[in-house]
From TrEMBL:
Residues 105-128 have a biased composition (Low complexity). It comes from Mycolicibacterium mucogenicum (Mycobacterium mucogenicum). Residues 87-128, 142-171 are annotated as: Disordered. This is Flagellar hook-length control protein.
């Protein structure tokens, strides 16, 4: 096991002075911190490798959360479902084009006329309904966000680290 480096009081003072200097010079703004956080998160979890990656479960949970809040439009979900079916070897056929509409006869249509045939119902696209049916199941499987153990909330109930689970650094 690698011994952890010893932090001296001087190191803490230097670190605090560095933070104070950055804040005084405007380099420690919320916008800058959010930009740095986004860049770091993209570097750590932004590349999805797939099964076998230690972060894959986290990435899957993030994807479920995005689906739960409607972050992916249904037409895009239908496209991804078609891709998944293609990878699984299932037949992926494009939706059938509507049949050509003939000329509509003029005149009033009524149940008494008897000449008008009932219009066939157009079924919904199976891909969209299938994906939408999966959303409640995915939401149910997604873990509820929790606070990081050992971090205290502020007095107003705000926990800046709620839902954040630190992991090993990947570089």
């Amino acid at each position: 096991m690698t011994p952890s480096p010893t932090v001296t009081p001087e190191d803490i003072v230097k670190g605090a002075a560095s933070v104070a200097r950055d804040a005084a010079e405007g380099r420690l703004s919320p916008a800058n911190l959010e930009a740095q956080l986004e860049a770091e998160l993209r570097a750590v979890v932004g590349t999805v490798v797939g099964e076998g990656d230690p972060l894959f479960d986290l990435q899957r949970d993030i994807a479920r959360g995005v689906l739960a809040v409607g972050g992916v439009p249904t037409d895009e979900l239908a496209e991804w479902l078609a891709v998944a079916r293609h990878r699984a070897g299932e037949s992926v056929t494009p939706p059938e084009a509507p049949s050509e509409v003939g000329s509509v006869p003029s005149g009033a249509h009524s149940p008494e006329s008897g000449s008008a045939a009932p219009e066939p119902e157009v079924p919904a696209a199976p891909e969209v309904t299938t994906v939408l049916a999966l959303v409640p199941e995915l939401v149910a499987k997604a873990p509820a966000p929790t606070s990081v153990t050992g971090q205290a909330e502020t007095g107003d109930g705000y926990d800046p680290l709620a839902g954040w689970r630190p992991g090993p650094r990947r570089r």
